[in-house]
Amino acid sequence: MNSDTPTQQFDVSIVGGGMVGAAIALALSQAGLTVALIEKQAPIDFKADSVPDLRVSSINLASEAWLTKLGAWQLLQTMRLCPYQRLQAFEHPASIVTFNAADVNSSHLGHIVENNLLQLALWQQFNTKVSRCCPASVAAFSQTEDSALLTLDSGEQLTSKLVVAADGGNSQLRQLAGIGTNGWQYQKACLVALVNTPYPQQDVTWQQFTPTGPKAFLPLPGQQASIVWYDDAPRVKQLAALAPAQLSVELLKVFPEQLGKVEVVNSSWFPLARMDANRYFAGRVVLAGDAAHTINPLAGQGVNLGFADAKLLTKLIIGAHQQQRDIGNEELLKTYQRKRKPANLLMMSTMDGFYQLFGNDITPLRKLRQLALTIASRSGALKKLVTHYAVGTK
Ligand SMILES: Cc1cc2nc3c(=O)[nH]c(=O)nc-3n(C[C@H](O)[C@H](O)[C@H](O)COP(=O)(O)OP(=O)(O)OC[C@H]3O[C@@H](n4cnc5c(N)ncnc54)[C@H](O)[C@@H]3O)c2cc1C
Q1: What CATH code is carried by the domain that includes residue 39?
Q2: How far is the CA of 174 from the centre of ligand 1 (A)?
Q3: Residue nearest atom 39 in ligand 1 by C-alpha distance
Q4: C-alpha of residue 200 to centroid of ligand 1, in Å
Q5: Residue 331 lies in domain
């Protein structure tokens, strides 16, 4: 510890300024709370001619509504994003189930956005109540009954009433706070590739289920798209090592014809893990987003769950602040955990059930999934319900 460095005081310190941490910082600062945001790496500036970020997310209507309230969505719209009106699921291209925006009386079902740009739009909305500590990371953490103390790698010290851990799936702060996790690494991994397509901008995102894993298409602005290829981890690593031209050839062999003759621009691969923190808080540390849970990305729900955490947590903190109550009190944090943990677990388990049902070739399961897709395509009410869940309005 550097004895010359004065300790700075904040209402809330947030470790991790990714999409979830930045949204929490923005919401709290807009309500007048002082916030320290500790982030390893700032988002890079937007250039209209830059190659899109490989990490993209499907943002549902519920997240969009909250981000609009925060003012970040409007900024993102001046950068780059791609709306979609239809969501398709199928095993064989002859039997496609389509979910439409009209089913939920909306002009669109969601948007595909680049993670880096959404993070940037949030950062660009920060007011003077947000003190950015960046690049920085945490060297030590301790807490008493009344406050929490963070020592940064620079030696700087920050005290606050509450520390939010939004530092992702491998959260260092979760470990420093002594919160354990449950979960496992899936045997599958996924390859993500940015591709040029021969078609004009598309309004559909689709997913084909195959025994080796799903193949997904996510539209991007103009004639570009992101494709996701789930397969056994060794196969995915092998594919990710290929040059773009070779990967294009492999892709065209296994993706359905409707993809068109795409050309790979670049690619990367991601391991797939399910993780659920045993509890969402310990003393004055509270977890949000991937620091609390990571989910199979199959249905594009990860950051949408993170925004739902962020929305509730900030609402509770702002409420306590306005009533001049302790913003790190146990009752508040228990309410947050009681409401968010079961909702996140339900989504994680539903996705795992889906993954089991559609990701193998066992005959009874094959029959069951054919039945599921047939029912989904014929029942208007069921389709509407599934669509509501997909867009986050249920
Ligand atoms: C292949 C793939 C596809 C996906 N697709 C979708 C999708 O379509 N829709 C969807 O909703 N979700 C999707 N997800 C999930 C989504 O990416 C995550 O849920 C989301 O990124 C979580 O956001 P976060 O802010 O909680 O964490 P992160 O995005 O992991 O951000 C954590 C931040 O903390 C910083 N940080 C980490 N450690 C420290 C430290 N010690 N000190 C300071 N800073 C630190 C990092 O630099 C980073 O900025 C996908 C995930 C994968 C792998």
Answers
A1: 3.50.50.60
A2: 15
A3: 167
A4: 30
A5: 7-84+109-185+273-391
Domain assignment present for residue 204? The answer is no
Length of the chain equals: 394
At 166 the pLDDT is: 98
How far apart are the C-alpha atoms of 216 and 148, rounded to whole Å? 43
C-beta 226 within 6 A of ligand 1: no
Residue 193 domain-assigned (yes or no): no
Taking the C-alpha atoms of residue 321 and residue 34, their distance in angstroms, rounded to an integer, is 11
Name the stretches of the chain with pLDDT < 70: 1-5, 355, 357-386, 389-390, 394
Centre of ligand 1 to C-alpha 168, Å, is: 5
pLDDT digits (tens, 9 = 90+) for 222-262: 999 999 999 999 999 999 999 999 999 999 999 999 999 99
Residue-wise pLDDT for 324-380, tens only, equals 999 999 999 999 999 999 999 998 888 777 767 666 666 666 666 666 666 666 666
Q: 306, 299, 278, 386: which is closest to 349 by C-alpha?
A: 299
Closest Cα to residue 22, out of 369, 372, 352, 307?
A: 307
Give a yes or no: residue 237 inside a domain. no
Give the model's pLDDT for residue 391: 72
* 128 domain-assigned: yes
Backbone dihedral region for residue 250 (phi beyond 0: left; psi -120 to 50: alpha; all else: beta):
alpha
**Domain total of the chain:** 1
